[in-house]
């Protein structure tokens, strides 16, 4: 008895289970794809300049932690290349210290942010969501797929926060890879 003969594995999409167009993508999967792209565009478009004093302080702190001695000119030069800060990313990214202070929405919202300096992070996450999410939603239904997706995002975020506190590395995270 092969996999194709099992009721739970049978295709409901027709010949070969192929998705012919974006209109054929199941509802929850389609909404998640659209939401991720919209948040990605908002990350790129909604930015603000970074406070130079804050950047200088971060560079100084990192140099002290690594044991490097940087001159004031080197710190100023490094600070001059600081990119603009994404407002959306600063609200949504998974920052373990902020989650510990009660900003628990970040456990879910970080799954909608992606690296705004390259499109490949978004492309590969959305390809996997399209490939596997479409199939899972067809097999289990929209409600169960949505619960599974968001539960996966929360569990992956909690694992990251736990690992961050265990190692002491409080670096923020973004991406839908965990979900």
List keywords for this structure.
mainly alpha, two-stranded antiparallel sheet, 8 helices
Protein described:
The chain is built from eight helices and two strands; from the N terminus they run αβααβααααα. With about 180 residues, it is an all-alpha fold. The model has no long low-confidence stretch (mean pLDDT about 85). A two-stranded antiparallel ribbon has the order 1-2. It is elongated, with a radius of gyration of 21 Å. The two termini are about 30 Å apart. The chain has helices at about 25-45, 50-65, 70-80, 85-90, 95-100, 105-110, 120-140, 140-165, and strands spanning about 45-50, 85. Helix 7 (about 120-140) packs across helix 8.
What is the H/E order? HEHHEHHHHH
Proportion of residues in helical segments: 55-70%
Distance between the termini: 32 Å
- Average of pLDDT: 84
Question: What's this, in brief?
Answer:
The protein has 179 residues and is mostly helical. It is built from 8 helices and 2 strands; from the N terminus they run H-E-H-H-E-H-H-H-H-H.
Write the layout of secondary structure elements.
Layout: H1 27-45, E1 47-48, H2 52-66, H3 72-80, E2 85-86, H4 87-92, H5 96-100, H6 106-109, H7 120-140, H8 142-167
Antiparallel strand pairs: 1-2
Helix pairs in contact: 1-7, 2-3, 7-8
């Amino acid at each position: 008895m092969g996999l194709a003969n099992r009721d739970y594995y049978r295709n409901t999409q027709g010949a070969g289970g192929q998705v012919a167009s974006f209109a054929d993508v199941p509802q929850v999967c389609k909404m998640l794809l659209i939401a991720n792209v919209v948040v990605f565009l908002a990350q790129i478009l909604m930015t603000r300049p970074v406070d130079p004093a804050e950047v200088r302080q971060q560079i100084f702190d990192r140099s002290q932690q690594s044991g490097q001695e940087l001159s004031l000119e080197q710190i100023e030069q490094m600070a001059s290349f600081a990119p603009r800060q994404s407002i959306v990313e600063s609200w949504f990214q998974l920052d373990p210290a902020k989650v510990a202070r009660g900003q628990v929405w970040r456990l879910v919202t970080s799954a909608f942010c992606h690296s705004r300096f390259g499109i490949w992070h978004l492309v590969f996450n959305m390809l996997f969501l399209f490939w596997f999410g479409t199939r899972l939603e067809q097999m289990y239904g929209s409600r169960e797929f949505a619960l599974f997706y968001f539960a996966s995002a929360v569990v992956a975020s909690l694992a990251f926060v736990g690992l961050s506190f265990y190692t002491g590395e409080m670096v923020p995270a973004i991406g839908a890879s965990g979900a």
